[in-house]
Amino acid sequence: MISTKDFSGLKPFEKKVWLSSPTMHGEEQAFVKEAFDTNWVSTVGANIDAVEKELAQYIGCRYAVALSAGTAALHLATKLAGERLYGRAKPDHGTLQGHKVFCCDMTFDASINPVAYEDGEAVFIDTERDTWNMDPEALEKAFALYPDVKLIIIAHLYGTPGKIDEIREIAKRHGALIVEDAAESVGATYKGKETGSFGDYSAISFNGNKIITGSSGGMFLTDSKEDADKVRKWSTQSREAAPWYQHEEIGYNYRMSNIIAGVVRGQIPHLQEHLDQKRAIYERYREGFKDLPVTMNPYEENNAVPNFWLSCLLIDREAMCRQVRGDNKALYISEKGKSCPSEILEAIASFNAEGRPIWKPMHCQPIYRTNAFVTKSGDGRGQSNAYIDEGGPVDVGADIFERGLCLPSDNKMTPQQQDGIIEIVHRCFA
Length: 430
Ligand SMILES: *Cc1c(COP(=O)(O)O)cnc(C)c1O
Fold this sequence. Notes:
This protein is α/β, with parallel strands linked by helices. Helices cover 32% and strands 15% of the residues. The two termini are 18 Å apart. It binds pyridoxal-5'-phosphate.
């Protein structure tokens, strides 16, 4: 597609402006060097001990287990929840076999793939408009449809805490456990408490584009020593205490290396600085877009302080030009005074900057095509954008996906570069 908008006078950025790239400070290298110098380069060492201690303290939970990825942490959290709910599985089965699990619909698929690893079946819960996370009303409807479900996996999208109290109340009433995916929300708080402390089991990520990074890595968080010990054991191939390799359970190679932990350790003192930078970026965008028919990704100002990991934009319905997205391609018709995510993302990319579509909802994904999807009106499968009530399209996730996008949110972006992005977006609506 070709945008017909006028971008004359604007120059491409000399250095690429990223969505969210790693920001190293120097201490990381010192901790990595220490690991080399002392030859603690494997999955044991002072860096691992330090990051587990420091992050447990920061987040406010008793135990942390450092793992190779956020996905690994979510896998073991989900497996553990399954074992607690349904008992130990046979070696060739997942702990969730035959059981449904309520999952966020609009999230990264790493949030919910562990349900499939454990042979469970994800039921997708629609999104609310106040924080773009799991809708408690839809969750309530889902319990009416599937009263036997005992596990809920929540996420805090783009670093914005969801409706935690409402969801915890519903979970409690139905005797369900919560796995909290705080991969995107390290440093975000809800009613003064850190995200990552709200699940029965929680997970965070140090993937390269997250607010602090180890280049990769993740962490499992819990208040239970027994659970932490179990996850540590599973993550190191489930060796039993014996003079040889004795195995009573299936194991995984999921432990964090002491090198990666050195990078994470060097990042922790800079978390607050990153939080401040991300917030400033969000606020500068909000100010810069005041005169456009768009809103920023919302949060509950009275309850929550997001970490502002990614700044996102949602185009008013009336200001959307026509846009059609197939499985692999988007088409749109450029229109005066209107725009759409495809046009804006192409424009941003053509000036050497990186934006991204909103996470495509899971119920729209080919791999999860046959899974159930519950909206607040009580159903939804196959109803994508099909009918509209006074609050707008009933399938909220598909609506936000259609009208929303992630803006370049790199904490090294200069105010001048950000003004350039803001100007490009203005031209898209001219
Ligand atoms: C990044 C991310 C993960 C996975 O973390 P990795 O460390 O990349 O495995 C899981 N869930 C969400 C929502 C994420 O954004």
